[in-house]
Write a structure and sequence with these properties.
The protein has 488 residues and is an alpha/beta fold. It folds into 3 domains: 186 residues, FAD/NAD(P)-binding domain (3-Layer(bba) Sandwich), CATH 3.50.50; 112 residues, Guanine Nucleotide Dissociation Inhibitor, domain 1 (Orthogonal Bundle), CATH 1.10.405; 109 residues. Helices cover 34% and strands 18% of the residues. The chain contains 16 helices and 19 strands. The strands form 5 sheets. The chain has a 7-stranded mixed beta sheet with strand order 7-6-15-16-17-14-18. Helix 1 packs parallel to helix 16 and helix 4 packs across helix 9. It is globular and about 65 Å long. The termini are close together. The structure holds flavin-adenine dinucleotide. Flavin-adenine dinucleotide binds next to helix 1, strand 14 and helix 16.
């Protein structure tokens, strides 16, 4: 019998569980929280709906591939709309709208910097080639060996792993706003653009080429769809069931898990989609592969200060569905995240108003607002700091809106470092895993299969391919393929 226990119910766990169950294995998921979805949980309050984590639906092809693997399509579960503009960026002296139409966007670039329209078109064509190689040839590899990265296509692009995204963008584009706009997509990979290999400009194609989409009802619709796929393939999902130990036999083989109430559940295989560092703490010390020192030396993706706000007024005449506030010093903020962890003086932030394009997200005439300030993992988190930064960003929002907004706030909820730790067992409260820097890419990331415990596997944003929802779907698929090779 091939009994599999999956720890956690984030996208990677739901993906792995579904693929394994489809092959006939007996799969159960154990999730500590009372609803599935991991970092993509949903908050509902006073008729407002908020996605608590991810809000950008990029790479629709990856979602489609997942559902097609199960004989379905995304439209069997949710309705997708391509947003236009995909998003807008507020700079000190200008507003840049990222139009869905690439020609229109090239014209916008041209108006800002002479010659940049044509350059953008060329840049996106190159990014598209990289996307095809990354998604078609490289991303499905399990990260076991450096040789996985060697293909005829990557061999001629070795230089792209030595130069950074910033090197390439800064060479072509001079205007600071255009540079910042083009560097934005790789922030999803969790590191500074100057520390991200230029091969990853494929994220620019994911953005400008494939577009920014919105599933009607919000990102939680994806979770519901994946739960439905998992359950229809036989996966049993147990929520409010925190795992406190992974048991290993004398011979070094996984035996099962112990839940917080002390009950032992036997398994032939265990796959953990919980944060890797936490998952290893569930093991006796001698079976952990990575030391505390190893984790301390990694570059983690930022943590975040998040606010979920109900506004009793529509703000959509000014703001779009997705808005980036890049009206302060990008470099100073990045340095406060990566170089000298500190609360940023004047942070960049992201504001999401899903009800600007989807009426189901807020009561009529009102607006649901989600705000995100990226911050260093592990920094101090107090109510006082949260309040201070809330006031800062509302003031900045008011400056762009041109009217006071404070009196239109029905309620505010916040989520920060301490919540990431207590809700998700996240290492230092990181929001989206381990950054994809040159030294933390592919085979240099924590391994999917334990080297010390047989039949124990890991998946999710700390493994391959990395942070983000589409990579989590892929990670679940790759780990299932590794595991299936060992099952009988
Ligand atoms: C604020 C925020 C914004 C983001 N924005 C985007 C975006 O716009 N687009 C995008 O693509 N990606 C985005 N991301 C990243 C994306 O959400 C994640 O990369 C992805 O959801 C991670 O999935 P996962 O399966 O790896 O892990 P998780 O979602 O973290 O799932 C792990 C699960 O394990 C559970 N768990 C932990 N310990 C235990 C235990 N002992 N027992 C049982 N269960 C346990 C946790 O509760 C959790 O449910 C964002 C993330 C955050 C936090």
């Amino acid at each position: 019998m091939n009994k599999v226990i999956v720890i956690g119910s984030g996208f990677s766990s739901l993906s792995a569980a579904s693929y394994l169950a489809k092959e006939g294995l007996e799969v159960s998921i154990f999730e500590k929280n009372d609803t599935p979805g991991g970092r993509a949980r949903q908050l509902k309050r006073n008729g407002y709906t908020f996605d608590m984590g991810p809000s950008w639906y990029w790479m629709p092809d990856i979602f489609e591939n997942f559902f097609q693997d199960f004989g379905k399509t995304t439209s069997d579960f949710y309705e997708l709309e391509r947003l236009d503009p995909g998003y807008q960026i507020y700079f000190k002296d200008k507003l840049l709208k990222i139009y869905a139409d690439l020609d229109k966007l090239c014209n916008t670039f041209e108006e800002i910097e002479k010659g940049s329209g044509k350059k953008l078109s060329k840049f996106i064509a190159k990014a598209k080639e990289n996307y095809k190689i990354a998604i078609g040839k490289v991303v499905m590899r399990p990260g076991k060996s450096p040789l996985e990265l060697v293909t005829p296509e990557t061999a001629v692009r070795v230089g792209q792993f030595l130069k950074s995204v910033s090197d390439v963008i800064h060479k072509e584009f001079k205007d600071e706003a255009l540079r910042a706009a083009l560097e934005f997509p790789v922030l999803f990979l969790g590191a500074k653009p100057e520390n991200t290999p230029s091969f990853y400009i494929f994220m620019n194609y994911a953005d400008y080429g494939l577009g920014t989409w919105h599933p009607k009802g919000g990102m939680y619709e994806i979770v519901k769809a994946m739960v439905s796929i998992a359950e229809s393939n036989g996966v049993k999902i147990h929520t409010s069931s925190a795992v406190s130990k992974i048991k290993v036999s004398q011979s070094g083989k996984v035996e099962g898990i112990v839940l917080e109430d002390g009950s032992f559940l036997e398994a032939d295989f265990v796959v953990s989609g919980a944060d890797y560092h936490h998952s290893e703490t569930l093991l006796p010390k001698k079976y952990r592969q990575y030391s505390e020192d190893y984790w301390a030396k990694r570059t983690f993706a930022p943590s975040s200060l998040l606010f979920y706000v109900g506004f009793n007024k529509k703000l959509a005449k000014t703001f779009a569905h997705h808005n980036l506030f890049f009206d302060t010093d990008f470099k100073a903020h990045a340095s406060d995240i990566y170089d000298k962890p500190n609360w940023p003086k004047e942070p960049l932030f992201y504001a999401n108003f899903p009800s600007a394009s989807d009426e189901s997200m807020a009561p009529k005439g009102k607006e649901a607002g989600f705000f995100l300030i990226p911050i260093a993992p592990g920094i101090e988190d107090t109510q006082e700091l949260r309040d201070k930064y809330f006031n800062k960003i509302i003031k900045r929002l008011e400056d762009f809106y041109g009217e006071s907004l404070q009196e239109h706030i029905e309620f505010t909820e916040s989520f920060c470092v301490n919540d990431f730790v207590s809700e998700y067992n996240s290492y230092k409260g990181n929001a989206y895993g381990l950054a994809n820097t040159l030294r933390q890419t592919a085979f240099l990331r924590p391994k999917l299969a334990s080297k010390k415990v047989s039949n124990l596997f890991f998946t999710g944003q700390l493994t391959v391919p990395g942070p983000g929802v589409p990579p989590a779907l892929i990670s679940g698929k790759i780990v299932s393929e590794l595991l299936l090779k060992k099952s009988v």
